[in-house]
Amino acid sequence: MSKSRISIGMLGMGTVGRGVYRILNENRDGIEQKVGASIEIKKILVRDITKDRGLDLEQGLLTTDAGDVIDNPAIDIVVEVLGGIKPALDYSLKALKHGKSLITANKDMVAAHGKELFEAAEDNGCDVFFEASVAGGIPIIRPLKECLAANRISQVIGIINGTTNYMLTRMSEEGLNFGEALAQAQSLGYAEADPTADVEGYDAARKLAILASIAFNTRVPLDQVYLEGITRITAEDIKYAAELNYVVKLLGIAKESEEGVEVRVHPALLSKNHPLATVNDVYNAIYVCGDAVGDVMFFGRGAGELPTASAVVADVMSAARYQLRNVPGIVSCTCFAEKPIKPMGLTSTKYYIRLNVADKPGVLASIAFVFGSNEVSLASVIQKQITGHAAEIVLVTHRVLEKNLQDALKIIKDLSTVDEVSNVIRVEE
Amino acid sequence: MSKSRISIGMLGMGTVGRGVYRILNENRDGIEQKVGASIEIKKILVRDITKDRGLDLEQGLLTTDAGDVIDNPAIDIVVEVLGGIKPALDYSLKALKHGKSLITANKDMVAAHGKELFEAAEDNGCDVFFEASVAGGIPIIRPLKECLAANRISQVIGIINGTTNYMLTRMSEEGLNFGEALAQAQSLGYAEADPTADVEGYDAARKLAILASIAFNTRVPLDQVYLEGITRITAEDIKYAAELNYVVKLLGIAKESEEGVEVRVHPALLSKNHPLATVNDVYNAIYVCGDAVGDVMFFGRGAGELPTASAVVADVMSAARYQLRNVPGIVSCTCFAEKPIKPMGLTSTKYYIRLNVADKPGVLASIAFVFGSNEVSLASVIQKQITGHAAEIVLVTHRVLEKNLQDALKIIKDLSTVDEVSNVIRVEE
Fold first, then answer.
1. Residue A210 C-alpha, separation from nearest chain B C-alpha, in angstroms
2. B154-180 tens-digit pLDDT
3. E strand or H helix at A271, and its extent?
4. Are residues B296 and A299, on separate chains, in Cβ contact within 8 Å?
5. Which residues of chain A lie closer than 8 angstroms to B147, CB-CB?
């Protein structure tokens, strides 16, 4: 080890950047002792140097010129916490081309451009680490890549969006409807003014694409992740689910079978006995099944200034260790296989179906007949009268092909006795 | 990278050894692709070569001569799965002296002789990894050493003995008493014929000493871990605990405060809302609090052939990666601090106390008076009549100093109105 100092350049000084700065300063002694070198933040790219950040920053630390970070020969490791694709990707690729290792918390960029980043790192003898891009401070990327590396992973199921988990928890515990839960999440700062990325599942899809790529050693394109948000979940669905011994969660599910890799983000009924079922509020958790390890779960805070920065700084420490010994690429891209994505129609799960129907003889029989003739068999039925002549039916199917279920639903929607297919939610065992 | 083949020697071919052999063979493709080299088991030390192991083993693979493994210049990495101190420690030290990296699943050896092993590794340019020594397949050692390395850890609380967790789960769910639960655990192969190491907490203490040493960067001697087993826990205690909204778990608890490091293994009442409370049956889990990450938990199977071997093989893969690049010691011993162990008398928790008393006026007052004059304040009291003239009182204290509680109990035991102090169990928040 010739070098005893590692210099960091940061791109961005928002919530996570601030956390990185704080941890590197407040826990400096332990961090430097573990790495075996001093670690110094040399330059931080910001938009506005004069803004009060509540930190006592050294003169000259902030810059508005990205070149001071990415082209600066004195900087060894670049921490990208800008978020988004532009200009984060350009900056990141330039930093890598200059041989600087890259630590990023940017799920959008890693999910969409992981390949370019890894190739640039490999070509230029440096590393890309992105633990913070999935599930904040929870160790999951490195455990998957290293600790569980001896396994064939068969499935990864995650609660990987804290905002929606908070909302579903409130809907479940207090009977709030979607709008009320969203307003509460917004007032607490858990949800953005425009909550689309969270409630429509885009955020979870990016994280799932990253997790699935690592778990199955194949690049999973973001646009191949099946996506359904939680906007159609009602307090009634959650109440019926509870009667059936399920909770409702927004899950990111990735499974491998002979037909390919299945990747889907959608709300699901989950058995109350599943280890993920008790993961509430803003907590995240990722459940992994491997052929050797069996089932393991990683639980913690999936977002926030310090939790996310905890993962970033750990990655900085790893990158520093490898750089000090000049051994980049020890843990590099593991997408060495090319596996097909399984078409959604070929996936199979159980389904929860809530219907509004006319309350007269023969209705259930006609519905059951349509399901039966599409190879959809029913596991349980709850029927409740809602007004004088209307009834609500809640069905749970056995495990069926998605395609068969959708075929059956098309016919059922048009039955004269069916007023509305109120909701269809997958059931995960 | 000059080398493209890594040769393994194994010490022992019991349950875990068999698992290592199976995983290395069954998942060979993925493992070798990730490591970037072929991995071959060259020699396995066994006691009896002729024993049928249910595996199709190559001629000449087994040996009864330890030298064929530890002195063999063709072997790069030694996997020690003998268990116990003798002869595992001698063999391990010799292997390290010959520059072979050591992978061990041996909690006894690591807890008692970690320092010697690490020093031998450092002196001879090789590595010691021991992920499998704590909590089987659950990634915890590497996550603590690397993924959470930016944190100051304030506490580690673990359910790290599957046998006792299984027994306590049965006692809780089926109302079994200790003996019945033990018999059931034995009949399922979860408990040994002599269950002492599990039920008296020795097994958990070894794992806790290892975890605490890593979490707090100071060597925690095994003999300084406070120890209480579960033999005195009754179905009644579990029932009362449930009434008070607690579950009973055997916990390994390590905390750091200004007075030093606190390390204790004992049964405890744990709030039903704690993430560890739903960890049942033979599952293990480790809950960690860090100043940056907040609380995280790692959950999974803490024992068994393949789960434990999953951790061993992952360590083999890491050791191979480092050996191929000739960079030992990247993640070495992190016990760089020397912190005192906090005397048990200075620890403070809440307590659950169950007493048999005479059912007459003034009894509770006299007990409460003794507690009060020893600065033990009470949070709740349940009193139940058991026979005509005897009553059972269950008290829960506020957080008090262990020393004060023990002083009070000495006096209470001798009160004429107190027949018996039936049980005293700490309450963990």
1. 17
2. 999 999 999 999 999 999 999 999 999
3. strand A260-271
4. yes
5. 131, 139, 142-143, 311, 314
Q: Which CATH superfamily is domain A141-301 in?
A: Dihydrodipicolinate Reductase; domain 2 (3.30.360.10)
Of residues B212, B409, B396, B188, the one with CA closest to residue B303: B188
* Backbone phi, psi, residue A286, to 5°: -130, 125
CA distance B264 to B294: 22
- Kindly report whether the peptide bond that precedes residue A87 is cis, defined as omega within 30 degrees of 0: yes
Rounded to an integer, what distance in angstroms lies between the CA atom of residue A82 and that of residue A74? 21
- For residue B287, give how far its alpha carbon lies from the nearest alpha carbon of chain A (Å): 9
For residue range A11-62, what is the model confidence (pLDDT) as tens digits? 999 999 999 999 999 999 999 999 999 999 999 999 999 999 989 899 999 9
CATH architecture group of domain B5-137+305-324: 3-Layer(aba) Sandwich (3.40)
Which of A33, A147, A314 is the closest to B148 by Cβ?
A: A314
ipTM of the complex model: 0.96
Is there a catalytic annotation at residue A207? yes
The two tokens of residue A8 are 């960091």
Q: Which positions in chain A touch B314 (Cβ < 8 Å)?
A: 146-150
Distance between A52 CA and the closest CA of chain B, angstroms: 23
Q: Which tokens go with B287?
A: 């809950």
In this structure, how many other beta carbons lie within 10 angstroms of the beta carbon of residue B350? 19
Coil, strand or helix: which one is A295? strand
User: What number is the average pLDDT over the span B204-230?
Assistant: 97
Question: What is the distance between the alpha carbons of residues A389 and A106, in angstroms, rounded to a whole number?
Answer: 53
